[in-house]
Amino acid sequence: xxxxxxxxxxxxxxSEKWEKYRGRExxxxxxxxMDFRSPPAVVDALCRRAAHGVFGYTAAPAxxxxxxxxxxxxxxxxxxxxAWIV
Length: 86
Description:
Blueprint lengths: L15 H5 L19 H13 L9 H15 L10
């Protein structure tokens, strides 16, 4: 369960959406930059990866490649060879 009532003030952080309108009576409501905490599962996964200490490129899981190919076909009608996905 997430607490969507928690107010997180990001105006004094390095936040593009808040810096852009600093000092103005504007509430930026960007689509991809939410002011909610990330789900615990996402934070935990990032912490595990960071603790590993190696940040090289990883292979894309087959399920991800299949999802991208299906999305491109469904959204754009594109026929993409899975080998093209890197």
